[in-house]
């Protein structure tokens, strides 16, 4: 029986909206959920509802809010298999990866449950007597969170958990093609005891979301925007927020490089490149974009990499596979466009490309009726190629060569993204030179470009974001604002920088 899903505002289902079918990409004839997409006014209404609920939630002591976060973690843990199966069904993520994604929510909750007791401010000495200075973290108010569907439950938790812990109310707009997974996560959060209106979920398309967000910013009912998605849409969100003097939290795309040095362990580098390039069918913001291999190891690396990709199991995501299908029809259409960027001077070192069908099979696998595509390695990239410069969301990895580490760093930075990066080397000097030179917000040494932990900052620079960070204690700066207070108990007006006691040194003194 097909799930029927609508927005939930103030604890109540919203109207039916415009029908949208979220499909199973491994069996495109199977509808996972029929979703009612809301209009812009519904989004704006949700923001007003959140504003009305936020003050009462902010008055709950932070350690108590931390206990709510703890309950969310335990509820997610108890529902791990069900939630992971739903993620696999709706977006085609291999089940083992879906389990890891759900585990990341638990880890996030485990970290932040204690932050309710550690929303530290400081007591600061004053330059005047009988006066104390303090700083406090205060909630921003209402956060509008807009997330992509490639990580339909883990990435939203990076926003929702700290935002709620800090005393904010939230309006969450997940990707419509991952609506069933998002709705399930919302129900888990609601079961934790959150008051109605503190967390609201709105399903809407891009235009309705933009128009509703614009109206809410104009009304003053949204005080922070969190967005995970493409660099192009992130730029639009940033422009909108800037007009209202707000700084959004933007987590955008990547063209993530992996440098392979002459002294690298090639088998380890191939293993990392396989997972980074083709895990989740290359549909991560941290997926490997370009391998930058030293000329002395380039040919051997490519030979081993092509063999590993050829042997990688691809198919039904409920099984033990590296690659499942693409997320949705729109991503399949875009991926087919990326394949047209392959130029005559390139070499496709994998045997086939395009959609897997009976006429274009991968071994015995014909793709059945899913959105399955051949993984592609393209060698011979040049720094001016679109495949080198632009994000390609899907199972395609480029390869180029370098002679010096400085050249490799320059190539790694050239596309202008700055999310994740990797270097495979056994030389500590190379590792630290790469770290110092790369513009990415995240650096891996002898590890893949993909992989986040709940207590490390996650985020990028350049086309990959505006420098904001998620995860760990660093995300608290996104969902709180600093407030300072001075308390003068001297009984008289003491004017800063004017009534300060003077101590006169003898600056002519010499031994």
TrEMBL record:
Which EC main class describes this enzyme?
A: oxidoreductase
Q: What sequence ranges are listed for the domain Aldehyde dehydrogenase?
A: 18-484
Record keywords: NAD, Oxidoreductase
What is the residue range of the signal peptide feature?
Answer: none
Q: What's its EC? A: 1.2.1.3
* InterPro entries in UniProt: Ald_DH/histidinol_DH, Ald_DH_C, Ald_DH_CS_GLU, Ald_DH_N, Aldehyde_DH_dom, ALDH7A1-like
| Entry GO MF terms | aldehyde dehydrogenase (NAD+) activity
Q: SUPFAM superfamilies given for it?
A: ALDH-like
Note whether Transmembrane helix occurs among the keywords: no
Residues annotated as catalytic: 251
Q: State how it assembles.
A: Homotetramer.
Against PANTHER family, the record matches this protein to:
ALPHA-AMINOADIPIC SEMIALDEHYDE DEHYDROGENASE
- The family this protein is said to belong to: Belongs to the aldehyde dehydrogenase family.
Which named protein is this?
Answer: aldehyde dehydrogenase (NAD(+))
């Amino acid at each position: 029986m097909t799930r029927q899903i609508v927005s939930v505002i103030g604890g109540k289902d919203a109207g039916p909206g415009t029908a949208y079918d979220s499909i199973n990409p491994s069996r495109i004839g199977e509808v996972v959920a029929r979703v009612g997409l809301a209009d812009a006014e519904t989004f704006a209404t949700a923001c007003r509802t959140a504003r009305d609920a936020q003050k009462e939630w902010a008055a709950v002591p932070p350690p108590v809010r931390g206990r709510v976060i703890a309950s969310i973690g335990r509820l997610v843990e108890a529902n791990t298999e069900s939630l992971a199966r739903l993620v696999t069904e709706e977006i085609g993520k291999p089940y083992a990866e879906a389990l890891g994604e759900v585990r990341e929510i638990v880890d996030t909750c485990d970290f932040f449950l204690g932050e309710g007791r550690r929303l530290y401010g400081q007591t600061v000495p004053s330059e005047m007597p009988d006066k104390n200075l303090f700083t406090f973290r205060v909630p921003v108010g209402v956060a509008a969170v807009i997330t992509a569907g490639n990580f339909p439950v883990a990435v939203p938790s990076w926003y929702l958990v700290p935002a709620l812990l800090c005393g904010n109310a939230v309006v969450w707009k997940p990707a419509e093609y991952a609506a069933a997974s998002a709705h399930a996560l919302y129900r888990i959060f609601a079961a934790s005891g959150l008051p109605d209106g503190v967390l609201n979920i709105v399903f809407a398309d891009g235009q309705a979301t933009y128009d509703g967000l614009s109206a809410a910013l104009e009304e003053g009912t949204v005080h922070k925007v969190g967005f995970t998605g493409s660099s192009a849409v992130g730029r639009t969100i940033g422009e909108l927020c800037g007009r209202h003097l707000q700084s959004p939290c933007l987590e955008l795309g990547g063209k993530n490089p992996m440098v392979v040095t002459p002294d690298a362990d090639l088998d380890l580098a191939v293993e990392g490149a396989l997972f980074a390039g083709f895990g989740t069918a290359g549909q991560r913001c941290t997926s490997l974009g370009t391998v930058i291999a030293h000329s002395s190891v380039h040919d051997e690396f490519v030979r081993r990499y092509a063999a590993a990709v050829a042997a990688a199991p691809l198919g039904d995501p409920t099984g033990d596979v590296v690659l499942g299908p693409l997320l949705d029809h729109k991503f399949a259409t875009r991926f087919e466009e990326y394949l047209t960027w392959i130029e005559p001077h390139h070499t496709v070192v994998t045997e086939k490309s395009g959609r897997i069908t009976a006429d274009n099979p991968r071994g015995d696998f014909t793709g059945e009726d899913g959105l399955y595509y051949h993984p592609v390695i393209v060698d011979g990239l040049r720094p001016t190629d679109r495949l080198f410069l632009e994000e390609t969301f899907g199972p395609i990895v480029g390869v180029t060569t370098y002679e010096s580490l400085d050249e490799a760093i320059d190539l790694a930075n050239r596309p202008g993204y700055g999310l994740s990066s990797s270097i495979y080397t056994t030389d500590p000097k190379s590792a630290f030179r790469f770290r110092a030179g790369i513009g990415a917000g995240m650096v891996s040494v002898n590890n893949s470009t993909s992989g986040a932990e709940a207590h490390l900052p996650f985020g990028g620079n350049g086309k990959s974001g505006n420098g904001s960070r998620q995860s760990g204690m660093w995300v608290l700066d996104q969902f709180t604002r600093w407030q300072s207070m001075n308390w003068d108990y001297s009984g008289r007006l003491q004017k800063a920088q004017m009534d300060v006691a003077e101590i006169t040194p003898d600056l002519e003194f010499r031994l």
